[in-house]
Design a protein that fits this description.
Layout lengths: L7 H15 L42 H15 L3 H23 L2 H18 L10 H18 L22 H7 L1 H10 L4 H12 L4 H8 L3 H18 L8
C-alpha cells in the first residue's frame, strides 16, 4: 500500500532518526499522526486511443494481490478512455503525488497546481501509456518530478512555508505528533533537504516522506535498486553535514 496513505510525521521522524544516526546520536521516539489527502480536484475528459495487449508486462507494487489486480484493470480501462476508471486511479494516487510535490516545493498552492497538472498530463497521455514492466504510480511520479524540475528551471518564485503550516496537511488531531510537525528541528531538517542535489533530495522525499520502497523509488528515478540505496546513504550523510551546531541536541 505504498502508493496510498502514508504517515508523514512518522516519515519525518524516521528521516530525523537517520540523520541523527549519521551524527552518532540515538533519537527519542515520536508520535504518529495520519495523513489527510487534499480535496479531490476535477480532471475531466478522457483521451481517445486504442487498446494495447501488453498485459504480460503489467506491474503494480501494491501488497495485496487483489489490489494489484484491481489497479492494473483500472489502468487498462483508463487507457481505453474510461473516465470513471481514471477517477479511481486519481483517488488512489493523488495523495502520494501531492506529498512529493509539496515537500519538493514546500508551497501548498504550488503543490496543488503541479499535482493537478500531473494528472491532467497523465489523462492526456493515457492512450499512449505502456506498462514495460513498470508500476503506474512510478509513471505518475516521473511526470510530477519532471514538472517540478521544469518549474524551478524556469526560475519561478519558490515559496517557503514555515513548518507549522505543514500541520494543515495532516490529520487535525491534538497531541504530541502535532508538536513534532511544528518543531524547529524539523524546519531545519527540511531546509537542509532542499539544499541537497536533486536526486538525493528526491530519493529521501520518496523513501522517508512518502514511504516508497527501494524498488518504487528506483522506478521513478530510473536507477537500479543498488544505486538508490547508495543515493539514500549519501543523501542522509550529506543532510547530516548541513545540520547546524546544536541541532542534534534540540
Amino acid at each position: 500500500m505504498t502508493w496510498g496513505r502514508h504517515d508523514t510525521a512518522r516519515g519525518l521522524h524516521d528521516l530525523r532518526a537517520a540523520v541523527l544516526a549519521a551524527l552518532g546520536v540515538r533519537p527519542q521516539p515520536a508520535g504518529v499522526p495520519g495523513w489527510m489527502l487534499l480535496s479531490e480536484a476535477a480532471v475531466g475528459g478522457a483521451p481517445s486511443g486504442g487498446r494495447y495487449d501488453d498485459s504480460d508486462q503489467a506491474a503494480s507494487s501494491e501488497d495485496s494481490e487483489a489490489e494489484r489486480t484491481r489497479l492494473i484493470a483500472l489502468v487498462d480501462l483508463a487507457r481505453g478512455g474510461d473516465a470513471e476508471a481514471f477517477g479511481q486511479l486519481y483517488d488512489h494516487y493523488q495523495g502520494s503525488v501531492y506529498r512529493f510535490v509539496f515537500y519538493r516545493t514546500r508551497s501548498q498552492s504550488l503543490a496543488e497546481d503541479l499535482t493537478s497538472e500531473t494528472f491532467l498530463r497523465a489523462l492526456r497521455n493515457m492512450g499512449g501509456f505502456r506498462w514495460q514492466g513498470k508500476d503506474f504510480g512510478a509513471w505518475l511520479m516521473t511526470i510530477a518530478r519532471n514538472l517540478c524540475t521544469d518549474h524551478f528551471k524556469a526560475g519561478r518564485t519558490r515559496l517557503e512555508l514555515p513548518t507549522e503550516d505543514m500541520g494543515a496537511h495532516d490529520d487535525a488531531t491534538e497531541g504530541p505528533e502535532h508538536a513534532v510537525l511544528a518543531s524547529l528541528t524539523n524546519d531545519v531538517l527540511l531546509d537542509g533537504l532542499r539544499r541537497l542535489s536533486d536526486e538525493q533530495r528526491d530519493c529521501l522525499i520518496m523513501r522517508f516522506l512518502q514511504g516508497l520502497s527501494i524498488a518504487e523509488t528506483a522506478a521513478v528515478l530510473d536507477r537500479s535498486e543498488g544505486a538508490v540505496k547508495q543515493l539514500q546513504l549519501r543523501g542522509v550523510r550529506n543532510l547530516a553535514k548541513l545540520m547546524p551546531e546544536g541541532w542534534r541536541d534540540a
